[in-house]
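Ticket reopened. Same input as before:
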Amino acid sequence: MQAVQRFFRQSLLSYRALFGWLDPKVYILVMVLSPLSQLLFFSVLVNYVYSGEGLVGYIGANALILCVLNSVFGIMSIITSDRYMGTFQHVMASPVNKAGLFLSRSIAHVLNGLFTSIIGFIFGMMIFQISIAPDAILLLVGVWMVSIFSACGLGLIIGCFCLWTPSMNLIGNILASSLLLLSGANYPQSIMPVWLVHFADFIPLTRGVELTKQILNEGNYSNVFALLGEEFVLGVCFFIISFLFIKYAEYLSRVRGTMDLD
Amino acid sequence: MMRALFQTIRVHMGISMARPMFQFIIWASPLFLATIAIFIYSSASPERIFHYVILGSGFMALWSSIVFSSASDINRERFYGTLEIIFVSPIPFAVILIGKIIGNTIWGFLSMVLSFVYLVFIFRVDITIPNPFTFLLAIIFVLFSLTVFSFFLSLAFTLSRQAEALMNFIEYPIYLVCGFMFPVAILPIWVQPISYLLPPTWAIELLRQVSTENSNNVALHSSVLGLLAVTLVYIVLGIICYRAVEKKARIYGKLGVY
Amino acid sequence: MSTINNNIINVSQVKRTYKTEVGIIKKKKKEVDALKGLSFSVNKGEIFGLLGPNGAGKTTMIKILTTMLTPSSGEVSVLGLNPVTDAKKLRPHINFILGGERNLYWRLSAYDNLAYFSDLYKIPRSEQHGRIQDLLELVGLQDVAHQRVETFSKGMKQRLQIARGLVNNPEILFLDEPSIGLDPVSARKLREIIRQLNDNGTTILLTTHYMFEADELCDRIAFIDKGELIEVDSPQNIKQKTNNVSVVEFSVIGIEATKIQEFTHHPDIHHVQFEQQEFLTKVKLHTTDPQGAVPIIYENMKGAIIQDLSITKPSLEDVYVQLIGGKVS
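Engineering reply: fixed in the latest deploy. New output:
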């Protein structure tokens, strides 16, 4: 029980410590208004081009993607911000289990992403005056939760890259744009070239977006189990890879002395 | 004076490009946006693709470079403490500011060209411009008009701290309101007057008109006149803001800090 | 005061080499020896100072002792454990503090910083509250416990760092230049805290550039330079070793540097250092024969104005400069 409590306490405290957007004004601007304006742009565009066909699915998919991008940036801060403050080496030299620590730090960002994407979706539904089947809601929350978990795993890997390179913003933006492009949030995946579709299979959110569209547009729940399972496995793989990166960075710093965690 | 202007343009283009974020906006972001746009419009007619994908993503590139550089440049100088130094130099501040804006607009234009080239070569999009010379003239007019708009924006954002916080979030709203990727006519009626108060709306409208075969002269003329009118309005607004900034700096001594 | 048996840190023949790659296209491997076979030991309950110029290997040594870096060769034991292989067992019993304002979460309050690091050191929740209150009291921050660290002054941040280093009640505390950049009053307060901790039984290993601080605080001092041990002893003994040496200090106006350098040729003058200031030059000579040296000074500097001549015992700084050799910066 101690350990569980510690897990969530660490999650909350490090979210506050490492993520600078706690000021409510800034939070609303960055975490809510900015994604909403993007959501509105893509929704209007898609609505115009497809003459309203499949609109609710696209709005859902965009709410998921656009609101999650901030979580991906947030999770990168778990490492970059810690390092920037000079606390990373203290954290690494403490006796705590590192995998557990970084997982607990990630949880807050997963929940935050879920919160903002739900707000985004409600906003989209209000603007376009659409509604969804009540039985889809819970399922959708589950699908999004797993997808965001998976996206955060990739975000953590990118955060590790930032131990090697100073251009965190650049990499983060490329990642964000790639997710938007590859997930197929604004067009059927079938439009993309085949090789790009294959590539998208290894990217988080692709399956989440697909499921969101299937659930909302077709009421098709049959693929949820399979696709969500894959998304979850993908997320677990991302987290494992990121832990290996952290271990490797620790090795470089401790044994080889070629990296400064300070 | 001209030499100072060219020097500013040259130096500033280097400074801007040194920022990784700006590199992303100029070189990478347009390609992502163009790809997304072409996927969305994949089954549309060539003319619509030209109007909404090529011009649209080109304009997004141009606009982003303005948002992420010109408008925030004064504040960046203030942050680094170099603003006062620039302000007291013998070259008028306006010349330096215009130099910076021209520099960014050149980058934005190159970024726009990059997205054209990318779409033409990778996605084999046909570009047929009925009257290339008119199109070129229109482009020059558009760039001038956007430079004026940037001049106004960068000064307006210097005057208010609240506005500055908003700066980073007006990228997509402008894409939306100015109809970069769809006609303004599909927007709700109450939004459209706002659209037509903003130069980018008229600018992209003009480029669409001059690239349409058999476009009627009335529509063409009205978009030329519209752009001309809003440009003049923003010249006046720009001068007013410039005076206000100067006053704030010289009389209230508030250039370095808020 | 101490016996050989209660060594809690033992360092024997420790070497550390950094391999760095220079250049991007033509990669050249370059090896830098940060430590070249360093040996010393620290007794339980003492304050041990590691002194040396920048690049001497002080921080490298601290990193090795705190499990953050592994030595290339040699033996290290801390509390009977090997920091390389037993890092997990060792970490709960030690802690370290790096000087400067960083290494804290500025956006959290002082209390939350300590709570967070308590969790990282797995301090049970039931003990945390009382412990944190005590620590905040120790470093004099109880009144600002719930203020964000970003509002703190440099000295307050540094004291909070001390508190952070104590969340796990470490048996050994490592301090890397704890007083860097502090004003004299804050620095004194910091020394008081360090002494208080030591009185309560914490063994302390610190590095510093301030000689008077080392002199005042440390039971024993190691001078290291270029990764090698120069001297290790108590400050008193180190000063004693140069007991027959006196320091002649004076200011002079109207003389060239070369003229001062000539003193080095004199058999009774062992060490010369000088510092050019705006109008005058400050000169320090180490000599075994101050009585003989003073007339020589006047003779050599005919025509110049000599002021503030004094003969004193060498300070730790004088010994340091003599041992490490060198220029006064």
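Residues 224-256 of chain A form the longest helix (33 residues). Chain A has one domain: 2-256. Please confirm and we'll close it.
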